[in-house]
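COURSE: Structural Biology Practicum
ASSIGNMENT: Worksheet 4, Part C
STUDENT ID: 0417
INSTRUCTIONS: Below are two proteins. For each, the amino acid sequence is given first, followed by its structure token string. Answer the questions at the end about the second protein only.

PROTEIN I
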Amino acid sequence: TYSAVHNPSTATVIARTPHAGGPEVERVVAAARQAFPRWARTPAPQRAARLLLIIGQRGITVDVPPSTAQR
């Protein structure tokens, strides 16, 4: 099942998120722990670029202040 995610300023539904039980959460936490050391060694501009790519692939738009844009 899914839950609606609301924009708190407008109360409009902006996304849906699946419910996860214990086994799903444990798998996600284990994967995050395994990935973290490599992610932490990745320079911040590269991390930002990867995150922007992922959200762009999902059709999400964000405002990125010029001071944080990849150089």
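PROTEIN II
(use this one for the questions)
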Amino acid sequence: ENLDTDVYCFVCDENAARIDYEPSSWRALARIVHDKQVPGNHNTCVTTFAGVVATELQKIIAGRNPEPRMQ
């Protein structure tokens, strides 16, 4: 485990069955790996389907506890 953080892995439909895009590859490097399959291919998942990715990112951000602020 090298990363002291969670990793969020978004994989497009087109690559979801490919072993080289398997989110498990990250598990040796991060304490927790979350994976989410999104519609489209490598390009369209962040263009045509950007709203899907944005919604998932909003859920991630909303679910995180804010770090205490130094004053």
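ANSWER KEY EXCERPT:
Q1: The longest strand covers residues 3-12.
Q2: The radius of gyration is 14 Å.
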